[in-house]
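To the wet lab folks,

You asked to see what we're planning to order before we commit. Fair enough. Below is the target structure as tokens, and below that is the sequence we designed to fit it. If anything looks off to you, flag it before the synthesis order goes out.
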């Protein structure tokens, strides 16, 4: 468990080598670059906004083309394809693919143009369909809808609101000489035509206006012919849409070159963003940053062997905000993400990952506590880890974390005698007439929950005391011996003494199903030790104050912190709660499944209920175990010693999605 030491690196090279040097550093991914611009007038900044904008535009274009291909010609990927990781390219393969970047941009433009045309043609179909629907009620009308009459007559064609009868229509027209016809009706509208002489046109128009008369969609053909024309247009549009879709799909074989173009232009944009922060003269450039000590020498050798360049490595200053990178063994490294999600170690703090991993796997397995579930998790994650060798590092660590958690869960399941709850007992008793059970290696929490609760509290105390021990180590390492005594040793004395004293009370031991009592003389000594710890905390808890009155008051407030220890210890009862929940819910599903009896129907019913119920139970309690294990680390454990606040080491590297370049360093 360690925080990787960092070296400050300064690279000075010839401007002609800038592009190659930055690309090599980017492929290595071991240098965090910071802006080299200061008040030095000799080195100035270069405006890279224009070039960066072009690269980002090409990147976006490639992403759009890929999204279009995914829509019209999706890849046939397996369910676990996301675990395959990015494709690996050698430097030679990368340089070969770079030559086709402009061709990829051209193809992307073609695909986007086809998609635009496709979208336009596709958008026409709903419009034509709407036109067709609007004309369908007029099918019985023989004249064009825009026909308004002859030299001596006037034709009114349109709709009025509601269900209007022919009688009501004539009543509305009054004494005007007109010929009216109802063409069609719906509960909402009446479709009609009225023919009258030119001299009566004004009177008819006024009468129809009172009925909320509205004209139909204009058409130079009669409705039946107009609908036929629209259907022909729709058929043509559908064919054009299908042809465009096929043309887009024909570009599917260019998907890989588009993926590379997306990654390439992303890398170029990132590089030019870095260039904008570099100090540059007419002939030279300068790069400042941080590199892990373990990579520093190889970085220097790799650059100086290829270029005329100066690489200077120095130790960071005490006041520098040095980035933090963690280095742990294969057992603990998967838990780095858990620590990082809380906060990375601050200056002077140790990396707690190893200790966190020990308790994380232990507590997670105890909460889930079923051998069947543990085997499912371990086998599923183990299969993925073995099958997908090129998996991304972050995903590999996550699956490794759950693989170890699964192994721990299986071990705790054997200890507690739980295998998919009481599946073995139910199956043997229901279908074979003789109950066979999995005997626990220790005891079954369902049979003795109070005993289990006592062990949960014991584990909690150990967890908290280890956290205090880390604080003690950090204070002693920093040379703060008195602070170590005041802030840690006194609390060990107070809390430890109180625990030992409580174990001398029969009420406590009986409640926790403990079969032994601490002897009275040991309890008396524990009480004295606790008293000394309490007095020490009261006298030193406010030692930063010079006024003794304030010091004692602050000390009393610090002593009040004993209640937080009580709540912290009680928090570990969740180990019992989640463990019981897993077993009880599994047993309930097993009981439900066995209700079908000893017959074919009963077997089928049990299998179905078992699969559905156990999967649901596994998913729910897996989430619960993950959340509550994190909580015990973040709140109870870290609360005793860990402040965090470290800044993550973010090297200048390939921010790619599909490919990664293998650079030998």
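Sequence we intend to order:
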């Amino acid at each position: 468990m360690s925080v990787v030491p960092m070296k400050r690196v300064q690279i000075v090279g010839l401007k002609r080598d800038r592009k190659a040097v930055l690309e090599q550093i980017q492929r290595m991914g071991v240098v965090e670059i910071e802006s080299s611009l200061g008040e030095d007038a000799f080195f100035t900044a270069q405006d890279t906004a224009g070039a960066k904008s072009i690269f980002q535009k090409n990147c976006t274009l490639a992403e759009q083309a890929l999204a279009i291909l995914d829509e019209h010609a999706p890849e046939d990927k397996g369910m676990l394809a996301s675990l395959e990781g990015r494709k690996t390219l050698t430097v030679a393969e990368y340089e070969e693919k770079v030559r086709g970047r402009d061709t990829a941009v051209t193809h992307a433009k073609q695909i986007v143009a086809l998609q635009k045309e496709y979208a336009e043609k596709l958008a026409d179909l709903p419009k034509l369909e709407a036109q067709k629907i609007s004309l369908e009620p007029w099918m019985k009308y023989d004249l064009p809808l825009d026909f308004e009459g002859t030299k001596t007559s006037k034709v009114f064609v349109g709709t009025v609101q509601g269900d209007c009868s022919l009688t009501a229509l004539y009543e509305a027209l009054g004494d005007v000489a007109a010929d009216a016809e109802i063409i069609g009706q719906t509960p909402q509208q009446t479709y009609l035509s009225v023919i009258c002489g030119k001299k009566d046109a004004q009177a008819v128009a006024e009468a129809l206006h009172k009925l909320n008369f509205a004209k139909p969609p204009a058409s130079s053909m009669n409705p039946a012919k107009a609908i036929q024309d629209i259907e022909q247009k729709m058929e043509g549009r559908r064919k054009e849409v299908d042809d465009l879709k096929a043309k887009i799909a024909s570009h599917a074989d260019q998907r890989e070159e588009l993926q590379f173009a997306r990654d390439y232009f992303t890398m170029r944009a990132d590089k030019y963003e870095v260039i904008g922060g570099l100090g540059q003269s007419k002939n030279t450039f300068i790069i400042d940053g941080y590199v892990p000590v373990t990579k520093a020498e190889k970085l220097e050798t790799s650059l100086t062997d290829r270029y005329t360049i100066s690489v200077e490595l120095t130790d960071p200053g005490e006041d520098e905000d040095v980035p933090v990178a963690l280095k742990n063994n294969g057992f603990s490294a998967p838990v780095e993400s858990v620590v990082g999600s809380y906060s990375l170690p601050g200056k002077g703090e140790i990396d707690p990952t190893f200790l966190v991993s020990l308790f994380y796997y232990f507590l997670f397995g105890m909460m889930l506590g079923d051998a069947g579930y543990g085997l499912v998790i371990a086998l599923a994650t183990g299969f993925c880890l073995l099958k997908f060798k090129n998996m991304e590092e972050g995903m590999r660590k996550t699956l490794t974390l759950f693989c170890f958690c699964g192994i721990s869960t299986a071990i705790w399941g054997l200890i507690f005698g739980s295998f998919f709850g009481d599946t073995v007992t139910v199956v043997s008793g229901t279908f074979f007439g003789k109950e066979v059970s999995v005997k626990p290696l220790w005891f079954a929490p369902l049979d003795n929950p109070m005993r289990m609760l006592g062990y949960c509290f014991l584990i909690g105390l150990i967890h908290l005391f280890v956290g205090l021990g880390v604080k003690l180590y950090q204070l002693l390492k920093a040379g703060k011996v008195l602070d170590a005594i005041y802030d840690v040793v006194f609390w060990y004395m107070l809390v430890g003494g109180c625990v030992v004293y409580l174990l001398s009370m029969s009420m406590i031991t009986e409640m926790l199903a403990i079969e032994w009592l601490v002897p009275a003389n040991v309890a008396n000594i524990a009480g004295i030790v606790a008293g000394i710890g309490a007095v020490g905390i009261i006298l030193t808890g406010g030692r930063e104050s010079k006024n003794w009155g304030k010091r004692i008051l602050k000390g009393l407030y610090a002593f009040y912190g004993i209640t937080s220890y009580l709540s912290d210890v009680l928090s570990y009862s969740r180990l019992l709660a989640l463990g019981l929940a897993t077993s009880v819910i599994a047993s309930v599903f097993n009981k439900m499944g066995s209700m079908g009896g000893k017959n074919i129907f009963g077997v089928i019913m049990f299998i179905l209920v078992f699969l559905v119920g156990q999967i649901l139970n596994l998913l729910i309690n897996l989430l619960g175990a993950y959340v509550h294990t994190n909580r015990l680390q973040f709140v109870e454990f870290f609360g005793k010693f860990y402040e965090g606040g470290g800044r993550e080491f973010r090297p200048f590297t390939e921010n790619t999605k599909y490919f990664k370049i293998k650079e030998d360093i």
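Structural context that might help your review: DSSP finds 22 helices and twelve strands in the chain. The CA atoms of residues 14 and 284 lie 4 Å apart.

Thanks,
Computational group
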